[in-house]
Amino acid sequence: MNFITIDKKDWAPGVDQSRKTYRVYGPVEDKNGCQIKPLAPDMQPKMDAPVTVMSAKSVLFPQTEKILTATLDESKEDHHVMKPVETDDMPRVVLGIRPYDAKAVHLVKLNFDNPDYKDPYWCAAYDATTFVGLGVTRPGPCDFSTAVGSGPFSEEGLDVLMADMDDKYLAKILTEKGEKWAAACGFATAADPKESQVLFDVLKKEAEKQIQADVNTDKLAQKTILDLYDAPFWDEVAFSCINCGTCTYVCPTCWCFDIQDETRHNTAVRFRNWDTCMSSLFTHHASGHNPRGTKVQRVRQRFMHKLKYFLDKYDQGIMCVGCGRCVASCPVNIDIREVCNRMNDYETTK
Ligand code: SF4
Ligand code: SF4
């Protein structure tokens, strides 16, 4: 494990140098708050940004993505034959990603890249991407990452983890991708590994101490799906929900999408767009039947998927990294921390 130090005066020139090799993404501030976006050549990432409104998931899984195209020109031999679109697989780097958002990539990977199915678009984007995280020294009030197997200095899913040391960054290189990124930036000042690890451990401990996360998941695996499904609290949980879908769009681990075909002149295009289990149209069948036609069914689905189905299927914890975005963004204050505890504590009387 290598540690390097990066003097802050060398940071911007290094980022600029890396643009020859990478498309650079990072936090930027606009009228909608802080977002992770591709940086224009004259832009630097806002490394001291608060938690971004949306996570970095769109770097690998865009909100709208063109996946197939066909010509409708019948004079062409291949008319109406759907073909993959050309993808831009230029190496990209995400700077300043929060450690729990990188862990979320690892959870999403279980869905898009597994022995049964490999999503070619997501996998190509994943292979092309390097994640350079920045440890969170001042976790926000909704952060409960430590309670769900992540944390402000979690390394899972990251290629580099950096710590802000005032006039410099201390960076822990975690993977070969991380080494290549540091070399492309010209960052090569080695730091003492033992001393650096001690510093990381101190910062981690201090940051974790600030998270007051009273969220328990320890008994979820022992519950049966049917007991939780039939639990009496779902009406109450769902009562105020307006099915706006915000919680799923801001979530770094939500991956649902819909496919849409559009034609324009002689070209047909197939897109995939983010969708949400909170929308009644998401499960509306062509026959008119809707297996999740009521609000309570949709709200239950969201929590059961994150906190029970995913846990049972993959045995890798729950499908939540505790970023708190859904808690902060829900217009009616539905709080996954409370729902998780209700599910965890639920004892059937049957
Ligand atoms: S953000 Fe809140 S109101 Fe909107 S769908 Fe999610 S739980 Fe319901
Ligand atoms: S469910 Fe909520 S707290 Fe958990 S990862 Fe998604 S947005 Fe973050």
Automatic annotation (TrEMBL):
Its EC number is 1.12.2.1. GO terms for molecular function: cytochrome-c3 hydrogenase activity; iron-sulfur cluster binding; metal ion binding. Keywords: Iron, Iron-sulfur, Metal-binding, Oxidoreductase. Pfam families: Fer4_22. It comes from the Bacteria. Residues 230-262, 310-339 form the 4Fe-4S ferredoxin-type domain. This is Periplasmic [NiFe] ferredoxin hydrogenase large subunit HydB. It comes from Desulfotignum phosphitoxidans DSM 13687. The lineage of its organism: Bacteria, Pseudomonadati, Thermodesulfobacteriota, Desulfobacteria, Desulfobacterales. The gene is hydB.
